[in-house]
Amino acid sequence: MKLIPLHRFYLKCLLLASPFLLLLGIYVADDPFMVLRKYTDYDHSPVCLSEGATAWTKYKMLRSERHYDSFIMGNSCTRGFLCSDWSQYIQGSPFRFFSNAEGLGDICVKLEALGKQPDQSVANLLIVAELSTLENYTPRGGLMHIMPPDVTGKSWMSYQSAFLQGFLTPKFLFPYLKYQLTGTFEKSMEGIIAEGPASHELYTNDYVPFLEDSIRREGERFWQRRIDLRRLAAISPTTAPSVIHRPHMEKLKELADFCQRHHTHLKFVLIPNIERQRINPRDIKCLKQVLGAKNVYDFSNHRTLSDYHNFYDWAHFRVKVGRHIMKEIYKQL
To answer: Is 163 within a domain?
Structure first.
């Protein structure tokens, strides 16, 4: 058998590896997820970032300056609740500390990490919850959900490798490279490339409600383009199945224990949804039993707030809904 010269073998290996090395070079140079280096601005990324990781990085970067002691937690529906509005009802320095598709498990992990920060007070906690929030009692993994090592306790290497693997998946890589080459946003890039201007404030991490301008400009056409009104018309109000069981109760007890230890004023809000699916009464009873009846508020089947004109899309309600809810839950103050 004829032996291949060693230098030819290495050359072939290099040629085979060259596409990966090229992509690795692009990843390191671009740092699309903003996790390889530190930045002063995380609010103008062209890429849809892991919101939880970004929020934690901003919190760590600004906490000594802003002295945060009040936090809004939950998933992307927290965009309807502005810290600038919340400040009217609390005395504190608020920060929207949300994550993509955040569940009870994620909230508990983040609270544990907050509690370990030096001299960190948590005077107020506003949790924005829907059915999926209650269902998910274990921390979520994956590119859009992973939290930094100082939150999860996992290694820096596993954290970074998760983002590199995510970058190399065709689902992300192809839209990203196309956008880098053309500079043009396309519908197929949704969820990969950020659409529109900066959507977060620097100091509070508040949502910037730029879609309100589109509503004023387009009127009814705004909802006709974004919401399937025929599908919506065929939906009748329902009650969700009960989702809180023993593992979920343990997480709720962790939450209640945290609030007790930190003397935290808790508001746990079950938000309205466009389908008018009511949270199961049994689950509401469990929430009130563990967290306290005066701390749990159910807007899940609110007829007026569930009107599609109060939403930006099928999932996210407008800022005016958040303002209405805050007024309701703090009206006795």
So the answer is: no
- Burial of residue 6 (CB within 10 Å: 0-12, 13-18, 19+) is exposed
Give the CATH number for residue 113.
3.40.50
- CA 126 centroid distance within chain: 14
CA max distance for the chain: 88
Evaluate whether residue 172 is within a structural domain: no
How far apart are the C-alpha atoms of 45 and 34, rounded to whole Å? 8
Looking at residue 46, the DSSP 8-state letter turns out to be S
In the structure, how many helices (H) and strands (E) does the chain have?
14, 7
For 139-177, how does the pLDDT look when each residue is reduced to its tens digit (9 = 90+)?
Answer: 888 888 889 999 998 899 999 999 999 999 999 999 999
Q: How many other CB atoms are there within 10 angstroms of residue 153's CB atom?
A: 10
Interval 222-257: pLDDT, tens: 999 999 999 999 999 999 999 999 999 999 999 999
DSSP assignment letter at 241: P
Q: Which residue type, as a one-letter code, is found at position 131?
A: L
Into how many domains does the chain fold?
A: 1
Is 260 inside a domain boundary? Answer: yes
| Strand (E) or helix (H) holding 17 | helix 6-30
CA separation for the pair 333, 309 (Å, rounded): 29
SS3 100: coil
In a domain, 1, yes or no: no
Asked if 300 and 60 count as a contact pair (C-beta separation under 8 A), the reply is: no
Q: Which domain holds residue 301?
A: 39-155+196-329
Number of neighbours of residue 62 by Cβ within 10 angstroms: 17
